[in-house]
Amino acid sequence: MILRERVARAVVSGRTVRDAAALFGVSVASAVKWSQRLRETGSAASRPVGGRRPRLLAGEEGWILSRMTEQPDLTMRELALELRARGYATVSHNTVWKQLRAAGFSFKKNAVRRRAAASGDRPKARAVEEVSGAA
C-alpha cells in the first residue's frame, strides 16, 4: 500500500493527524490532505494532472470554415464577434485562431512588407548625403 494511503487510513481509523504524521514521518499538512481526500473520494491517491481540454469551438468548425470560404479576408476578431453573437460569450480571437490552426490554416506573411526577410536579401542602404568639409 502506498504511504499516503497508510497515513490516511490511520487517521480515518482513529489516530490523530499529528500521531499519524509522526508515525510515518510526513508533514501534518500532508496527513490532513490525504485523510480528507480519502473521506471524500474513497482514495488518497493523487488527483489527475494535466491532460488536454476539448476545443471550445470544435462544434462550430464547419460554420467557421464556411465563413472563411465566404469571406476569406475576415479577421480573427471579427469571427470572434460573430461567434459571440451566436452565443459563445467567452470566445476570444485567440480561441478562433487555435481552432483554425487545428483545421490546417496557417498565417501567410505579406511579401510586400518584407517583414522577416534576412538582411542579405535587401540592397545596401544608400548614403543620405555627403558630409560637407570632409577631406
Question: Can you describe this structure?
Answer:
The chain contains six helices and no strands. It is mainly alpha-helical and 135 residues long. Among the domains are: 3-41; 58-102. The termini are far apart. The model has no long low-confidence stretch (mean pLDDT 82).
Compact description:
The protein is an all-alpha fold and 135 residues long. The termini are far apart.
Key features?
135 residues; mainly alpha; 46% helix
Strand-helix topology:
Elements: H1 3-12, H2 17-24, H3 28-41, H4 61-70, H5 76-85, H6 93-102
**Overall shape:** elongated
Structural class estimated from helices and strands: mainly alpha
Cα-atom radius of gyration = 31 Å
Low-confidence runs: none
Order of helices and strands: HHHHHH
Q: What's the end-to-end separation, in Å?
A: 89 Å
- Residues in helix, %: 40-55%
Percent of residues in β-strands: under 5%
Count of individual helical segments: 6
User: How many DSSP E strands?
Assistant: 0
Sketch the major β-sheet: none
Averaged pLDDT:
82
